[in-house]
Automatic annotation (TrEMBL):
This is Uncharacterized protein. One of its GO terms (cellular component) is mitochondrion. Coiled coil: none annotated. Residues 316-411 form the Ketopantoate reductase C-terminal domain. One of its GO terms (molecular function) is NADP binding. Belongs to the ketopantoate reductase family. It comes from the Eukaryota. SUPFAM superfamilies: 6-phosphogluconate dehydrogenase C-terminal domain-like. Pfam families: ApbA, ApbA_C. The lineage of its organism: Eukaryota, Fungi, Dikarya, Ascomycota, Saccharomycotina. Keywords: NADP, Oxidoreductase. Residues 127-269 form the Ketopantoate reductase N-terminal domain.
């Protein structure tokens, strides 16, 4: 006879450890469903049980292959007890004997409170989730709005009511003894990450997890080198994400969820060489690194619809977004509403094709492209011109010209700069960049002209 149930424990307030419990006749086993905590934390808990519980069963702990994501597995057997840790060291323990019936109670006694779900891990009521503002003006506006964020899910027509969350908010990290930043999500539209991260550097260590959301292609590499150039040993665990759903920010920190999509999350090499990083992912993904609870918690939230993926998948999305932005943003700004009338003309299609041609040359100069293609030859399809042209046209039809999720002019500047490194001029993108600079300068001068009555 086989019995099965789920037991989930919250260890030390923020670490999660989930077991699936099987009972087969007189034998029992517990298998980890998720890697939400380290083997050392599990070992610490089991040592407490070792000193406390007494019953009729012994158990064994093992992990996956060395160098691969540890998956602790507990099997309750009558064999001698051996513990294989993350490092592969084998330890002999005295016999640990306990019954499944007392397992949950034992964790309660030792201060590890059972819970039935991890979907609300990011709820500010359950954990210390704070918002950091680098602008005093924005912080004041947030406090004036009740320190609340309202999310309107416009995809749910039956229930248009808002989900309201209240957060602590600060300008910089509060100076308290417990203000180490465990997890940091950077979601600002910027390429100047040095200014955004510097205020928190004294609270960030190599154990901190930092997730950059929608960072433009190539923007993180140089920023990370500049920020941690003096102390490479303190570089945190870095991840990046690309989102594909539609969000509209309105007044008073109200957010409208308008288009379905996903969040794609990948690890980013903090200090490892690109070639080695991509190669290791090709061989061991998803066991190439230990995925932190921050990422797992995001994956567990249905509305975010997040997926952990290898970098080559995320790189493909970044390339597509760069090319779409390089085509739609400058044309939308320069041609204004006339671009809609020209949408299907041969002349405009020719301009788009040329922008894409120059973008492909620039992308080929990227060290990421070289590392990804060297590891997986099929990744060359990411720069297929016909595929990219179809994506641009579909995006223009769906969103219109001039609507961009990226920073103004970033894509155009990226293409000009990287093409130059390969001794190519990128004349069309260079022309568009100069026209955008001239237009912006002209608008600025008009705004400075005094009004004479």
């Amino acid at each position: 006879m086989v019995a099965e149930n789920i037991v989930t424990f919250n260890l030390e307030g923020s670490l999660w450890f989930a077991f699936k419990v099987f009972t087969i006749d007189n034998r029992a086993s517990l298998k980890s469903l998720s890697q939400r905590t380290s083997a050392s934390s599990i070992t610490k808990c089991l040592k407490s049980l070792n000193a406390f519980l007494k019953s009729g069963l012994e158990f064994n702990i093992s992990s996956s292959l060395p160098g691969v994501l540890p998956v602790p597995v507990l099997a309750l057997t009558r064999t001698p007890l051996l513990v294989e840790s993350i490092s592969g060291t084998t330890l002999d323990w005295t016999s640990v004997k306990f019954s499944l019936a007392t397992l949950t109670k034992a964790f309660e006694i030792f201060g590890f409170n059972p819970t039935s779900s991890t979907r609300e891990n990011l709820d500010p009521k359950l954990n210390r989730v704070s918002l950091f503002f680098n602008s005093s003006r924005l912080l004041k506006s947030f406090h004036d709005s009740g320190s609340q964020i309202k999310l309107y899910n416009e995809l749910n027509k039956r229930d248009p009511s808002a989900t309201v969350s209240t957060f602590e908010a600060f300008k910089g990290v509060p100076e308290t003894s417990e203000s180490h930043v465990d997890d940091l999500i950077v979601s600002m539209k910027t390429t100047d990450f040095e200014d955004q991260i510097t205020p928190y550097l004294h609270r960030i260590t190599n154990k901190t997890n930092v997730l950059f959301v929608n960072a433009p292609l190539g923007s993180l590499d140089s920023s990370i080198k500049r920020i941690w150039r003096a102390d490479s040993g303190s570089v945190p665990n870095i991840f990046q994400a690309v989102t594909t759903y539609g969000l509209i920010n309105s007044t008073n920190f109200d957010v409208k969820y308008t288009l379905p999509g996903k969040m794609f999350i990948s690890a980013f090499p903090s200090s490892e060489k690109l070639k080695n990083f991509v190669r290791k992912q090709e061989l061991y993904y998803p066991g190439d690194i230990l995925v932190p609870s921050l990422i797992k918690d995001l994956i567990d939230i249905p509305l975010i619809n997040a997926q952990y993926c290898p970098f080559k998948d995320l790189f493909k999305l970044q390339v597509e977004r760069l090319v779409v932005d390089a085509c739609l943003n400058p044309l939308g700004q320069l041609l204004s509403f006339d671009v809609q009338a020209l949408r299907d003309t041969t002349a405009l299609n020719k301009v788009i094709e040329t922008i894409i041609d120059e973008a492909v040359i620039a992308i080929k100069a990227s060290p990421w492209f070289k590392a990804v293609v060297n590891s997986d030859k099929t990744a060359i399809s990411v720069i297929d011109r016909q595929r990219l042209f179809a994506i641009v046209k579909q995006s223009a039809k769906q969103y219109g010209y001039g609507s961009s999720d990226m920073l103004p002019d970033f894509a155009t500047n990226y293409i000009v700069r990287n093409s130059k490194s390969r001794h190519h001029a990128a004349p069309v993108n260079n022309l568009l960049r100069n026209l955008l600079i001239s237009k912006r300068r002209s608008q600025q001068e008009q705004n400075e002209i005094p009004i004479v009555k």
